[in-house]
Write a structure and sequence with these properties.
The complex is a heterodimer of chains A (78) and B (279).
Chain A (H helix, E strand, L loop, with lengths): L1 H20 L1 H4 L6 E2 L2 H27 L7 E2 L6
Parallel strand pairs in A: 1-2
Chain B lengths: L1 H6 L4 H18 L4 H15 L1 H16 L1 H10 L4 H14 L8 H23 L25 H21 L5 H18 L4 H24 L19 H8 L15 H14 L1
Helix pairs in contact in B: 2-3, 2-7, 3-10, 5-6, 8-9, 8-10
Classes of the chains: A mainly alpha (78), B mainly alpha (279).
Chain lengths: 78, 279
């Protein structure tokens, strides 16, 4: 049952990977946070599932703007 | 039709419409052929994005300048990832480094590129009626044709691969070797997909890549890469003169404006070799 519940999260992880090999490769950049935004998205989707993980990744992207300081910002454990 | 249903989403639809209208405007008012209008539209978009990309290139150069010291920190705390990152972030703050370009502005580019992509795709499928000039530079007879259906298209694809690799070389900031190799190999994979795209789209890709390369070259020329702060190596014994002491203290308090003196010839040679390898 637990494994079934994880499937949507892993679909999200697949999308992040798709981004990485397409646009990520076309517009390579670095992130001011550690782990990087895409890595953070993968970790949060794996740990917190699709819905919560997506929100966390979205919030991180909004924080990753020119006015923020960046830094070490790991995914909160479940 | 499926294409329309799939991609004319509430967000992309209007953006695509704007891109198409701009293309029409360029063609009618500037008197350019359709192919050159695509080039002009691409250049216009890239010009709008200049402040963003220049800032990114500068912060990348700044980051590379401190690479030896950052590697030293990484090596020192390789067993404690959290401590390593804390130290790295502290190092950034001490040296006034803005770690790198942030992700949000980069993502903001995506809708622009996607809308251009769909506008050009739609344009190629439904070109304006009447006798029109769709040729480009004598080797592309029609920009609405699929790229792999005429010999000039293959020339275009070769130029695409070359320009994509060159732009990756300029824009990729990652120091991770595997990732760099992956980025370099990507165009060879993309080329099979892009071969089936209309030639107009490939003209767009080539233009945007060449712009990236040109921009990278100009930025580097205007702002030459600053000399890296001297690296402390255990093999270099501290010299008796005043420089030696300075050298020893530097890794603790690395100056943002390093003034390399003449004495550091052996480590400098080592560093140059590394850079050549990384490129």
């Amino acid at each position: 049952m637990n494994a079934v519940l994880r499937v949507p999260g892993y679909l999200g992880v697949g999308l992040v990977w798709l981004y990485r090999v397409t646009f990520g490769a076309l517009f390579p950049t670095t992130c001011k946070y550690h782990p990087s935004c895409s890595e953070y998205a993968i970790q949060s989707l794996k740990t917190h599932g699709l819905v919560r993980g997506s929100f966390m990744a979205g919030w991180r992207l909004l924080r990753c703007n020119p006015w923020s300081r960046g830094g070490y910002d790991p995914v909160r454990p479940r | 039709m499926t294409h329309m249903i799939l991609f004319s989403t509430p967000i992309i639809g209007p953006l695509e419409h704007i891109a198409r209208n701009v293309l029409d405007w360029i063609h009618t008012h500037l008197g350019l052929t359709w192919a050159w209008s695509i080039v002009a539209l691409t250049v216009a978009v890239r010009m709008l994005l200049v402040p963003l990309t220049v800032k990114q290139i500068h912060s990348m150069q700044n980051l590379q300048r401190f690479a030896p010291q950052m590697k030293e920190i990484q090596k020192k705390y390789k067993n404690d990832k959290q401590k390593q990152n804390e130290e790295l972030m502290k190092f950034y703050r001490e040296n006034n480094i803005n770690p790198a370009a942030s992700c949000l502005p980069m993502l903001a580019q995506l809708p622009v590129f996607i809308s251009l992509y769909y506008a050009l795709k739609q344009f190629s499928k439904h070109p304006p009626p009447g006798p029109q000039d769709f040729s480009w530079l004598h080797f592309v007879p029609n920009i609405t044709w699929h790229t792999n259906t005429f010999w000039g298209g293959y020339v275009l694809l070769v130029v695409y691969v070359g320009s994509q690799m060159a732009s990756t070389l300029f824009m990729s900031a990652t120091a991770d070797r595997t990732q760099r190799i992956l980025f370099m190999v990507m165009p060879l994979v993309f080329v099979f997909i892009i071969a089936r795209f209309p030639a107009g789209l490939v003209i767009y890709w080539v233009t945007t890549n060449l712009w990236t390369v040109g921009q990278g070259l100009i930025t580097r020329r205007l702002m030459p890469r600053p000399a890296a702060p001297e690296k402390r190596t255990s093999r270099t014994p501290p010299k008796d003169d005043g420089d030696g002491g300075e050298n020893g203290a530097e890794p603790k308090e690395p100056s943002p404006k390093p003034k390399p003196t003449a004495k550091a010839a052996p480590p400098r040679r080592v560093r140059r070799k590394k850079q050549a390898g990384r490129r």
